[in-house]
Amino acid sequence: MNAEQRVNLMFIQSGMTKKEWSSIIGIHENNIIAIIKGRKNATPAIMKKIAEASPEYNPDWVIRGLGAMLTDGTPEPSVANSVAQNEPENEAISVKMLDFVMKENAYLKAKLDEALAIIGNQARLSGKLNLQPNAGYAKEVKFIPELASVA
């Protein structure tokens, strides 16, 4: 479990709002939000502040991810289990986000395929473009200067 996952787990287990938790720790709420959302890395200084403000957690676990999670020897649970136990609405949100992303991906793939079909038809008519298959469903469109010269 990396530092950002440990911060997220501790926040979830606190049962507080991000504002309340960041106030207790002494770190600006925007920094906590950025760490929890994965937009910012948790620095050693931040992890030390969190450890100092959370005496129930083993400081070695908080700062370096070593040893038992809690000072009473309780091991760390998986982040997925903690989220599921403490915030069941996260699962519904995750499913909705996944559904949205999959629909958006399908829509974008269809639009890309349409555009590539048009480009492919135009390329075959003019003989000036070469379509190369690429990784995934996308194709690479390559302009070949030698074919572009008009005789």
Give an overview of the whole structure.
This protein has 151 residues and is mainly alpha-helical. It folds into 2 domains: 3-87, 434 Repressor (Amino-terminal Domain), CATH 1.10.260; 99-148, no CATH class. It contains 8 helices and 2 strands, in the order αααααααββα. A hairpin with a 5-residue loop joins β1 and β2 (139-143).
Strand content: 5-15%
Structural class: mainly alpha
The end-to-end distance, rounded to whole angstroms, is 64 Å
Report the average pLDDT across residues. Answer: 74
Question: What is the CATH topology classification name of the largest domain?
Answer: 434 Repressor (Amino-terminal Domain)
Please tell me the CATH architecture of the largest domain by its name. Answer: Orthogonal Bundle
In total, the number of strands is 2
- Counting structural domains, the number is 2
Write the layout of secondary structure elements.
Elements: H1 3-14, H2 18-25, H3 29-36, H4 44-53, H5 59-64, H6 79-86, H7 89-126, E1 129-133, E2 139-143, H8 145-148
Antiparallel strand pairs: 1-2
Describe the structure concisely.
The chain is mostly helical and 151 residues long. The protein contains 8 helices and 2 strands.
Essential attributes:
elongated; 434 Repressor (Amino-terminal Domain); 8 helices; 151 residues; mainly alpha; 2 domains; single chain; two-stranded antiparallel sheet
